Q: What sequence folds into this?
C-alpha cells in the first residue's frame, strides 16, 4: 500500500480525519468552501485515494472513511524527509530545527526531558 500522499490527497484526508465517515458529496462541499475545488476535482482525488487504499468507499451514498490515521501518514512523511534530506539521520533533522531557532526554549526543554527518559 502506497503511503505517499500528495497535497491534494492530504486535503481530502484532512476532511476525513476531522469529520470521520462522510459522503463524497460532503467532502466536495467542504473543499469547495475551503479552496474552491469543483465536485469533479474532489471526486477525482477521492478515487486516487481509494486506489492507494487510504480511503474506503461504502455504499449507499458513496460514504468515505479513512483507512490510515494522520499519525501514520506523519510518520511515513517524516521518515521520507529524514531519508531524503538528512541521510537517514533523525538527529540531523532535530539539529536543523534547533539551529534555525524554529523551537521555543520550552519545547527544547521538553525534548531534553524526552531524550533523558530514553
A:
Amino acid at each position: 500500500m502506497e503511503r505517499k500522499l500528495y497535497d491534494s490527497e492530504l486535503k481530502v484526508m484532512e476532511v476525513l480525519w476531522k469529520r470521520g465517515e462522510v459522503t463524497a458529496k460532503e467532502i466536495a462541499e467542504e473543499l469547495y468552501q475551503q479552496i474552491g475545488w469543483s465536485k469533479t476535482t474532489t471526486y477525482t482525488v477521492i478515487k486516487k485515494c481509494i486506489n492507494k487504499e487510504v480511503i474506503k468507499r461504502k455504499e449507499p451514498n458513496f460514504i468515505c472513511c479513512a483507512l490510515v490515521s494522520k499519525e501514520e501518514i506523519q510518520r511515513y512523511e517524516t521518515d521520507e524527509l529524514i531519508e531524503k534530506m538528512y541521510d537517514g539521520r533523525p538527529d540531523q533533522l532535530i539539529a536543523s530545527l534547533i539551529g534555525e531557532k524554529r523551537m521555543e526554549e520550552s519545547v527544547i526543554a521538553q525534548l531534553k526531558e524526552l531524550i533523558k527518559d530514553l
